[in-house]
Amino acid sequence: MIEINKVHKSFGDLEVIKGVDLTVDKGEVVSIIGGSGSGKSTLLMCINGLEKIQSGSIRVDGTEVHDKGTDINKLRQKIGIVFQQWNAFPHLTVLENVMLAPRKVLGKSRAEAEEVAVNQLNHVGLGDKIKVFPGTLSGGQQQRMAIARALAMSPDYMLFDEATSALDPQLVGEVLDTVRMLADDGMTMVLVTHEIHFARDVSDRVAFFRNGLVHEIGTPDQVINNPQKPETIAFLKSVS
Ligand code: ADP
Ligand code: MG
């Protein structure tokens, strides 16, 4: 599980995370919604140790991410992350791109890495694209490749940061379907998303972020269908 306790994070004088508490249980899907600049991306970066925190704690399976003694590279292997866009290596095929981390980071043999990569590419519906170069893929296919690449490391957790927001509207569905499939598989996930309907459908809980804090949290029915706080109501109105 992911346990976030009283986390504060600043960039210089600018405090962007102001005491966040959030627990994500094994198998749970938690969506984070909220306005631009509210600290959603920063929180994800803090969860996998890409950004330092000033105080508080973030534990993943009981290990403190921000302890000096923690092997952060090892911990990161179990946390896959998918961003708005991932720049694949253009001179490598889709398959080779997905094989890279299992080979370099996990030390798998070429054959082992290829097996894992082919399996994950099949899983995200790109089985017929393994031999092509990333530049020939649509935006939606590229995002599914990014998901396959993360899955090839056999993560226990997946973090998504607006994985569909750079896509043309007609390509969003295929990526959301892939995320939904992972949810059905029981993957533990934190989804930062603008897709409110999707968040409502796929999440166990939804957190509305505002001004560096979890402003309202609960089931999708509570937060999206029956928000209690005026700011949550206003935000949902603004995006609907
Ligand atoms: P969100 O993802 O909710 O839009 P972010 O986490 O990206 O918000 O940003 C929160 C705040 O932190 C914003 O004011 C942003 O400008 C600031 N910020 C984010 N990253 C950095 C950085 N590397 N250096 C300085 N300020 C940053
Ligand atoms: Mg962001």
Automatic annotation (TrEMBL):
Segments forming domain ABC transporter: 2-236
PROSITE patterns membership: ABC_TRANSPORTER_1, ABC_TRANSPORTER_2
Keyword presence, ATP-binding: yes
Keywords: Amino-acid transport, ATP-binding, Cell inner membrane, Cell membrane, Membrane, Nucleotide-binding, Transport
CDD domains reported in the protein's UniProt record: ABC_HisP_GlnQ
InterPro entries per UniProt: AAA+_ATPase (IPR003593), ABC_ATPase_HisP-typ (IPR030679), ABC_transporter-like_ATP-bd (IPR003439), ABC_transporter-like_CS (IPR017871), MetN_ABC_transporter-like (IPR050086), P-loop_NTPase (IPR027417)
Superkingdom of the source species: Bacteria
GO cellular component, one term: plasma membrane
Membrane topology reported for the UniProt record: Peripheral membrane protein
Keyword hit for Metal-binding: no
Protein name, as recorded: Amino acid ABC transporter ATP-binding protein
